[in-house]
Amino acid sequence: MQRHGAAVGVAASRVRFEEKAIMAALERRRVPFQPFDTRTLWLDLQGEPRLPYAVVLNREIAQTRSAYLARLLESFDVPTINPARAVEVCGDKFLTSTRLHRAGLPTPRTALALTTGAAASAMEQLGFPVVVKPLVGSWGRMVALVRDREAAAAVLEHREAMPAPQARIVYLQELVDKPGRDIRVIVVGTEPLGATYRTAGQWRTNAAQGAVSTRCPLTDDLAKLAVAAAEAVGAEVAGVDLLEGRDGELYVLEVNHNVEFRGFHAAHGDRVDVAGAIVGHALRWVRP
Ligand SMILES: Nc1ncnc2c1ncn2[C@@H]1O[C@H](COP(=O)(O)OP(=O)(O)O)[C@@H](O)[C@H]1O
Ligand SMILES: [Mg+2]
């Protein structure tokens, strides 16, 4: 006996291209669904609510709220896509790196320093240039390319002055000499749907930083790496970002748990139905 209802919940505080596409796909398949604004949700842990959801698609963009939404729903036995554990891992660059590394996947050399002083020492040893990233963040925000000791001192001084204790934990990475682009592979379940290049006029190639998406051939290597990376972080729906090195070798950079696919859709058009694949994956939790 299922405790909860049969609808697919669509949780978001902002309804973007992606959420509209997912709801359109649900409508097309005549799947009952209920969108809800995560900012209005609260549940009494002692209560025994009968929630209307068989499964919830977690589309909350705020990382902390997204992680607690997943934990909260899972505590009431409502499965979420992605699972709470994947939201936690993907939302934290350090946890992601450890999972990728442990799975034996190629990923840029990465270090974690527990103080800004230790970060300064690490940079001297690892050498410049070096990439410095916030532990939690997306869209390329505050991802800094540090070319020399002076720039390092400035970035670390700013980190020291920031109020959040997490700001003084410094995530450092070697700079991969990529050809002005990165590669995004979207994985749903264990299926790689396709790949795009994201090319930008600057070193950060996030769509949010103005990168343009074009079709990229999904080679066996890309497909295998992307599926393995999604599995390593426990993500059922994933936007896997990869970098190409100077000799074409591939590195897994990160896995995005709340995948945006506007650029992907611009590149592939209706040939690849990302929203439809996400809905198809969610249906395994919905009673016939
Ligand atoms: N180690 C690196 N070498 C080369 N480019 C990098 C590296 N790390 C990040 N970048 C560039 O910066 C962008 C943002 O970094 P990323 O780690 O994906 O952070 P975010 O989660 O904010 O997207 C990447 O898409 C890539 O273009
Ligand atoms: Mg990224």
How would the blueprint of this fold be written?
Blueprint: E1 7-12, H1 17-28, E2 33-37, E3 53-58, H2 63-75, E4 80-81, H3 84-90, H4 93-102, E5 110-113, H5 116-126, E6 130-133, E7 144-146, H6 149-161, E8 170-174, E9 181-188, E10 191-199, E11 212-216, H7 220-233, E12 237-244, E13 250-256, H8 262-268, H9 274-282
Helix pairs in contact: 1-9, 2-3, 5-6
Bound molecules: adenosine-5'-diphosphate and magnesium ion (MG).
The site of adenosine-5'-diphosphate has 22 residues, from strand 6, strand 8, strand 12 and strand 13.
Structure, explained:
It contains nine helices and 13 strands. With 288 residues, the chain is α+β, with helices and mostly antiparallel strands. It folds into three domains: 82 residues, Rossmann fold (3-Layer(aba) Sandwich), CATH 3.40.50; 65 residues, ATP-grasp fold, A domain (Dna Ligase, domain 1, 2-Layer Sandwich); 102 residues, 2-Layer Sandwich (D-amino Acid Aminotransferase, Chain A, domain 1). The strands form three sheets. A five-stranded antiparallel β-sheet has the order 11-10-9-12-13, sandwiched between helices. A four-stranded parallel β-sheet has the order 2-1-3-4, with helices on both faces. Strands 5-8-6-7 form a four-stranded antiparallel β-sheet, sandwiched between helices. A hairpin with a 5-residue loop joins strand 12 and strand 13. Helix 1 packs across helix 9. The structure holds adenosine-5'-diphosphate and magnesium ion. The site of adenosine-5'-diphosphate has 22 residues, from strand 6, strand 8, strand 12 and strand 13.
